[in-house]
Amino acid sequence: MTTASDLSSHFRFVLVRTSHPGNIGSAARAMRTMGFTRMELVSPHRFPDREASALAAGADDVLDGAGVHQGLIEGLAGSNLAFGLSARRRGVNLPELTPHEAAMQAMAAAQRGEQVALVFGNERTGLENEELARCHAMVRIPSVEDFSSLNLSQAVQVMAYELRVALLGENIPTPPPLHDEPPADAAQMERFFEHLAQMLDDIDFHKGRAPTTIMLRLRKLFQRAQMDERELRMLHGIFADAQRMARLAKGEK
Ligand code: SAH
């Protein structure tokens, strides 16, 4: 039988461009109280830092083990499912979940053996659209409209608590696997989107229009599909053939 602590290891908390090291420490404490230890920091303004250690209040193992990365793609390496936490509805048009709904989906994914990321934004600016676009769904803590933004570490606490409750829940049926092949991870999806963009360019799909909006829509479509590695290989093959035909049509070899 899988226990809460086995499943906890399937989760990581990713803090993006955090300004205040104190918030990193408080977030580490919030995670640790709920049994989560994996923290990934993307371009933190200051880390390591005394203030982070002070506010971690003993959750030093979380800080010591925290990965530091330049970009979100690296912070998501090896993850199969990512939830972006945001106080505001953004222009990205992702499915929006409550923390409870996200926790239930995250649990099901963890039980299938997948790695799940919870992604949190900068204190002032939150997550950028580009960053949210790398997530499968957005999670909004249902705060009041006119004062919607929680302190970063308190948002981490709410999400960690919901996950903890879900992990402790009894009689959760083990979901059937979505795939018989390994699910694609974030890095494979990134290479896929690069190939897709290049192929659309090569077949002159954009015809002078800016590719940004269509690429965001395609991201949403393909993220939703939660593809496995074999499906990715098949699409890479199709794109490569389309590129070959485009070269032939242009009279290149
Ligand atoms: N003005 C920013 C607030 C940033 S607060 C914004 O609108 O997004 C720092 C981070 O805490 C956010 O990026 C988000 O990850 C998390 N957070 C704060 N309040 C939240 C809420 N109500 N729902 C979901 N996440 C929230």
From TrEMBL:
InterPro entries in the cross-refs: Alpha/beta_knot_MTases (IPR029028), RNA_MeTrfase_TrmJ/LasT (IPR004384), SpoU_MeTrfase (IPR001537), tRNA_m1G_MTases_N (IPR029026)
Q: Does the keyword Transferase apply?
A: yes
The UniProt entry's GO biological process terms, in alphabetical order, are: methylation
Catalyses which reaction(s)? uridine(32) in tRNA + S-adenosyl-L-methionine = 2'-O-methyluridine(32) in tRNA + S-adenosyl-L-homocysteine + H(+); cytidine(32) in tRNA + S-adenosyl-L-methionine = 2'-O-methylcytidine(32) in tRNA + S-adenosyl-L-homocysteine + H(+)
SUPFAM superfamilies (UniProt xref): alpha/beta knot
tRNA/rRNA methyltransferase SpoU type domain location, by residue? Answer: 11-161
Keyword Methyltransferase attributed: yes
Q: Sorted alphabetically, which keywords does the UniProt record give?
A: Cytoplasm, Methyltransferase, S-adenosyl-L-methionine, Transferase, tRNA processing
GO molecular function (one): methyltransferase activity
| Protein origin, superkingdom | Bacteria
Q: Name one Pfam family in it.
A: SpoU_methylase
Enzyme Commission number: 2.1.1.200
Compartments it resides in: Cytoplasm
PANTHER family, alphabetized:
TRNA (CYTIDINE_URIDINE-2'-O-)-METHYLTRANSFERASE TRMJ (PTHR42786:SF2), TRNA/RRNA METHYLTRANSFERASE (PTHR42786)
The family line of this record is: Belongs to the class IV-like SAM-binding methyltransferase superfamily. RNA methyltransferase TrmH family.
What binding partners and quaternary form does the record give? Homodimer.
User: What role does it play?
Assistant: Catalyzes the formation of 2'O-methylated cytidine (Cm32) or 2'O-methylated uridine (Um32) at position 32 in tRNA.
Q: What is this protein called?
A: tRNA (cytidine/uridine-2'-O-)-methyltransferase TrmJ
What organism is recorded for this protein?
Answer: Dyella caseinilytica
Underlying gene: trmJ
